[in-house]
Design brief:
By secondary structure, the chain is mostly beta strands. Helices cover 0% and strands 32% of the residues. A hairpin with an 8-residue loop joins β2 and β3. It starts with a strand and ends in a 40-residue tail after the last strand. The model has no long low-confidence stretch (mean pLDDT 80).
Length: 104
């Protein structure tokens, strides 16, 4: 679960210190009523984990984050690395081979 941790969760996360946090564990150790220890990862703007942390927050101040569809990662097609599959797919251009390349 990904939550937004801001000032409502704890004053230390107010303003520019607010952060998206992927929760991996909620500790069972005793705390004050309404507070909890969370273990998880802070996330960058792409939703990738950048640092593992343990934070102490008010449960009621956490806001769930809707997952954004991830952008597909760019994959190199055979035409992008100089080899053409049969039929030359649209968008591919023929790449000249140098004399040092092995011949087919």
């Amino acid at each position: 679960m990904v939550v937004q941790v801001g000032a409502a969760a704890s004053v230390q996360f107010g303003g520019r210190r607010a952060l998206p946090f992927r929760v991996t564990r909620v500790a069972e150790r005793p705390t004050y009523h309404g507070w909890c220890w969370l273990t998880g990862y802070t996330l960058d703007e792409n939703g990738e984990a950048v640092a593992r942390r343990e934070i102490y927050v008010q449960f009621a101040g956490l806001r769930p984050v809707r997952r954004q569809p991830q952008k597909p990662k760019l994959l190199l097609a055979p035409c992008a690395i100089g080899r053409k599959p049969a039929g030359y797919p649209p968008g591919c251009r023929r790449v000249r081979r140098s004399a040092h390349d092995e011949s087919d």
